[in-house]
Structures are given as C-alpha cells and as structure tokens.
Amino acid sequence: MADSRRPFLTSRMATMFDHAAPPRRMRRRVFLGSSTAAVVALLSIATGNTSANAASSSIPVPPGFDASNYPAINDFAGGTRQVPSQLPAADLDPISRAGRQLEDSFPASYSGYYQSADLSYTVLFVGGGDSTVQQAATKAFAQIPSQLVAAGFSPAAAKAGAPVVNFGSAKFPLKQLDTVADSIRPQTKLKGLWGVGIDIINNQVVIHTDGSDAGTTAVAEISGKNPDGIFQVATGPLPTPTSGRHADSAPWNGGDGIYGWGNSEECTSGFGMHNVSTGHKYLLTDGHCHPDYFYNYDWVANTYGSLMGVTVTGSDPMETSASGAQVVDAQALDPGAGGSSCISWGAVSVPPSSLVRYYITGYNQPSQGLGILSEGAHGYEKSGSVSELNLSFPETYNGKTLYATNLFSVAGGSTVQGDSGGPMIQPSPFGPLAAGIVWGSATRSGQTYTIGTMINAVRFISQADPNVSSNGTNC
What pTM was estimated for this model as a whole? Predict the structure, then answer.
C-alpha cells in the first residue's frame, strides 16, 4: 500500500477473513516444448478446486463477488495487441528510443549500448565510430531527461541530468545481429535448439542448445552459413517458469503474494500499472499464472484474505493466442476500488525484517551490464546483471505450444516457486525503473539465471504504463 511516510521501516496491514482454504501446497511438473528434460513449473499450487482451462468466465466465482466494483474487468475484451518482432519507436521508453534513433540513423555502424555499475552508458559502434556518430550519440542521450516527464516518468527522474556516455568498439552492427537472430528463431523448433537471444556486450547472437548431439549438429549447420565470430553457444536445459509479502493492503504493491481462487495457483504481483487512455489501474502478473481471482493468503492460518485483483478479460495472450503464436507472457489484473500503487517491495520485507519499499520513477528496457533486482513473494530479492536480451523460446500452455518472446536473462540469483510475475527493477540515474516481470529461471554451465519479460513489450500489448512516484518518496 502507498503512504507518505519514509519508504523503509513501515508497517503492513493484514486484512484477513476466514474462508475454506486448500489444505496444502504441492508442486506441479510440466514439460515445455519438445525438450526431453523434465522441468518443474515454479509456481506454488494449493491442492483443491482447480480448473483445467481457466478463464475469468469459467472459473469459480468467489462468494459475494460484485463485478460492478471492478470497472476495468473488460478493458481487454477484444484481446491484446499482437507483439511485432520489433516494437515501434513510439512504444519504447525514452532511453531505448535514443538507441533506436541511433540504430535508424547509423544502421551500418551502431551496435547497441550497455550500462556499467557507475550507471554510465557505453555506446558501441563498429570500429569505435567517428566523431560524427559519437556526437550524434551524445546528443541523443543528452535529450533523455527532457523526454522523461513527457513519457509519464516521475518529475524526480529528470533531476539527475544527462547521463554519462562513453564509447566502445564492436565488430557487427546491431541491425546485423537482429537480422541473423530473427532468421534463426524459427529453427528453434529443431531438436536440440530451444532459444535465441542477443548479447550486446560481447556483440554476438546467442544460440541456446540442450547439449545433445542433435543440437551440436544444428549449431554447426547454422554457423556455417553466417560470419565467423557472430555466434555464442550456450548449453543448458530449457528454462522453467517460477510460477511474500503475504499480508499487504490496498492499494496493492508489486512483490505481493497472490493466490488464485479457481486454479489455486500462487504467483507474485508485478508493477502497479495504469491505462494511458482511461486511467484504470491494474496489477501485472505472468500469463502462465492463468486467469483467476487473486487473493492474499495466509498459509499458517489457512485463510484467504482480501481480493487483490481479477484477471481482465482478454488481457492474457497465453489464453487468447492460437498454438504457434509469438506471445508476451503477462496478464493484467483489475484491483477494483483499492487500486495499485507505485511501490514494489524490496529485500525480504516480511516482519520482523525491515519493510523495504522501492518507489518506481519510470520504466526502461533492461540495459545489459547493469544490475537488476528481481522481487518474488517467496524468493524475496535476488540480484544479478543482465546477460542477454531479446531471448525467445517455446512454452507449453493448456496443451498449446506458444513462443514466449521479449525475454531477457539475469546472471545470478535464481528465483523460486511462487515468484512468477514479480517486479524486476533496474537502478538508474533517474531512480528505480520498471524493467520487466519475473518469468522463471534457467541454468547455464552451472550458473543460475533469472528470466524476465521486458517491460516495453508488456506496455505495448496492454497499452498501459507503470505507476510512478510523484517525488520519489510517495505515490
């Protein structure tokens, strides 16, 4: 819930009432795509009343539910927008838009940008770039602060001034990396290959293989048709979805534990959002959490608490898309009159620990190289650095094989069961920015990774922006 007090060391309010509760939680095993490796779906499931094909119109309706109190419940009755292979520039955040401007102006030399621990940006050009392209990059990034408030960021975000920009050298332009990656994505249907992404820092396309002989053969065939050095091969099993902050009160925060009434699945609330046209407030979570009525739940007392949000009809592309479609794994929840805040829980944030709050000031496509904080209702806060962008791979949902897109990976701090949908926060010179929501976890060469869905893609399909703080300390 939002308040005007300091962001830390605040108390939380429990609003619980008794109701018939599932007797226990269990883990469900699922198989994703055609991979031979069994993976555990990391969402917590309470045994009890379930629905095989959940939709807000078919799952059980909680006693006393009054749809008139949830005005946004039909905002997406016609479904969400189909996400293109590249989002339009107008739908990007101001920081990513500066990069797109450089990519469009210098397609043969611009190679992307990444961030360092000191929050500076390093812009890459083939061969390092000449004075013309470097001046253009400096100008593009200098314009960012003036564009932040116009894009709906907190006024506090623009006070930091223009970010520091450095320059680096690369071999391949970003256009070429994108073109090669897009040509390979359909081949992830081949046995042994499960994903493709982009590594900006190392200036390479990442091919993900399960390590089988078939995967090795496929990589060799693909490599022989493309320039030397353009590929990086990553070996490991298909990622698993991580499908708390358990006694919050309205307006609801990101990082809350949310518990489905009809499917009995447990996930985590993502950022508070608002429709840019109607002003309706939403909460985010993952689409693979299934449409439902989501509550607080006290696993010690075995009681449901307050109704936190109801799936907005048609907001979940996992439900509305046909097998084979490219999707963004996210859905919008209507929190009703209680609304959603601009806050995400941080650290552990479960009494007696300190209750850490992050007041979101804006949003940004995650930048490779910089740290990301992933917030989950059970794994709490995990930190790591962005290692790969524009990742995609197959995902099985209700018997359909879909292709999850617009994903990114964060090295270190694997999330756990029940963390799906949680906020992923990027520190920046402009305050804590919404970068994405937790999808799941992966293992690569013995290292754990958190997989997230990038915020710009979520904004695009839902036509909604994250709620932001008015001054960095309240909503």
Answer: 0.78
For the segment 100-118, what is each residue's pLDDT rounded down to a tens digit? Answer: 999 999 999 999 999 988 8
pLDDT at residue number 413: 72
The arithmetic mean of pLDDT across residues 27-31, rounded, is: 25
- 87, 234, 113: which is closest to 168 by C-alpha? 113
> Which among 411, 415, 394 has a CA at the least distance from the CA of 208?
394
Q: How far apart are CA 404 and CA 407, in angstroms?
A: 7
Contact present, 93 and 296 (Cβ < 8 Å): no
The enclosing H or E element of 319 equals helix 317-320
* Per-residue model confidence as pLDDT tens digits over 395-439: 989 899 999 999 999 997 778 888 999 999 998 888 999 999 999
Omega cis (within 30) before 84: no
Residue 188's φ and ψ, nearest 5 degrees, are -70, -10
Q: For 141-208, give the secondary structure using H, E and C.
A: HHCHHHHHHHHCCCHHHHHHCCCCEEEEEECCCHHHHHHHHHHHHHHHHCCCEEEEEEECCCCEEEEE
DSSP3 helix / strand / coil % (the chain, rounded to 5): 20, 35, 45
Angle subtended at Cα 386 by Cα 380 and Cα 387, rounded to the nearest 5 degrees: 125
Neighbours of 15 (CB within 10 A): 12
- Mean pLDDT calculated for residue range 43-47: 32
| Two structure tokens written together for 94 | 């101001």
Instruction: Quote the DSSP letter at residue 85.
Output: S
Cα 267 to Cα 27: distance, rounded to the nearest angstrom: 13
Q: Are the CB atoms for 336 and 282 separated by under 8 Å?
A: no
Strand partners, 121: 115, 165
Tokens of 339: 């609304």
